[in-house]
Design a protein that fits this description.
With about 350 residues, this protein is mainly beta. It has 2 helices and 30 strands. It has a 9-stranded antiparallel β-sheet with strand order 11-12-13-14-30-24-23-18-21, with no helix packed on it. It has a 6-stranded antiparallel β-sheet with strand order 17-28-25-22-19-20, with no helix packed on it. A 5-stranded antiparallel β-sheet has the order 1-2-3-4-5, with no helix packed on it. The longest helix is centred in the N-terminal third of the chain and has 6 residues.
Length: about 350
């Protein structure tokens, strides 16, 4: 196993950022920055042994500072949306930053993707590990409580990238952390030809502003059904209200929690396969519907459907939906979740 630390420029407030390059003995190479906990690159082989970068990203930190697409970063305190940018804990209402119309998205204006985390490296014969730590202070973006968050990236020789999330608070708050990498296993074009399977019988439908309605509906007989492998683009243009709301897929799936991976993504052309396992109850499938060609990286223009996100998470707007799994974290409790991305070739 190898791990290397490289300087990567500074943020607007003068904080110095770095890149951490992890490489296993099979040649899988993952690069993560302490700026935003961002996965900037994942180099994997195709069936012919050719290396390709399977995540969307940029080379320069300045491009990440200017981007609005959340490429590869950690989002929090609350990944996804909170309706009306308000929620209650114990009858006390809290208002958070409105940065998505009337709503709150991915932690607000200066969320976890926009700070430099404290980083610690560890390497042994079996794995390379990067532990990141950040303290979000009481009142930041409107959230109550001082929150200490840890995100640990571990690469092993099974071609697995594991992300462990941990958080503790000194006051009741809400927490929902996720990684926002955009995957494209073909390393070019769109993801519409990728084959996708999601182990989920249910999903949470949304309204026209992409806020969950509070219902939990079955996927059977709808374009939301990925229980068997289907091409991402097979039904994405069908006349369906949910697809119209999202401009494609931008929906949370309620994971069945079977014995196998929660999600499997395959590119028939390259033979690359991504399997996702998680302790989280949901995964947000987002097919890059708002990528509009205004951002480019590594010789590619990021147009609509150039990549897709598989954001393992609790459900969007859970703080305002009592029937959804709770995202409240209280003093003395520990938020603790893991997600594993396993790369292979067929």
């Amino acid at each position: 196993m190898k791990m290397d630390r490289r300087p990567w420029g500074s943020t607007a407030d003068g904080s110095r950022a770095h890149l951490y390059v992890m490489e296993n003995n099979g040649g899988l190479r993952v690069t993560v920055s302490d700026y935003g906990g961002t996965v900037t690159s994942v180099l994997t082989q195709d069936r012919d042994g050719a290396l390709g970068d399977v995540v969307l990203g940029f080379d320069a930190i300045e491009e990440y500072l200017a981007s609005k697409a959340y490429l590869g970063c950690i989002v929090g305190r609350y990944a996804n949306r909170i309706a009306g940018a308000r929620f209650k804990i114990g009858g006390v209402e809290h208002g958070v930053t409105r940065n998505d119309g009337a709503h709150h998205l991915h932690g607000g204006a200066r969320s976890f993707d926009k700070v430099v985390w404290e980083a610690h490296m560890a390497v042994d014969s079996d794995s390379a590990q990067l532990e990141l730590r950040h303290r979000s202070v009481d009142g930041e973006e409107g959230y109550p409580g001082n929150l200490d968050a840890w995100v640990t990236y571990t690469l092993n020789d099974a071609d697995e990238l594991r992300i462990d999330y941990r958080a503790e608070t000194d006051r009741a708050t809400v927490v929902n952390l996720s990684n926002h990498s955009y995957f494209n296993l073909a390393c070019r074009g769109t993801v519409l030809g990728h084959e996708l399977r999601i182990d989920a019988d249910l999903f949470t439908p949304v309204d026209g502003e992409l806020i969950p309605t509070g219902e939990i509906l079955g996927v059977d007989g709808t374009p939301m059904d990925f229980r068997r492998p289907r091409r991402v683009g097979e039904r994405i243009t069908e006349p369906d209200e949910q697809l119209e709301h999202g401009g494609g897929y931008d929906h949370n799936y309620v994971l069945t929690k079977g014995s196998g991976p929660a999600v499997t993504l395959r590119d028939p052309g390259s033979g690359r396969v991504l399997e996702v396992s998680t302790t989280q109850p949901g995964v947000q499938l987002y097919t890059g519907n708002f990528l509009d060609g205004s951002e480019s990286g590594r010789g590619r223009t990021y147009t609509r459907h150039a990549g897709l996100c598989l954001e393992t998470q609790h459900f969007p707007n859970s703080p305002n939906q009592p029937c959804f799994p709770s995202t409240v974290l209280r003093p003395g409790e520990t938020y603790n979740h893991s997600t594993v991305f396993r790369f292979s070739v067929t």
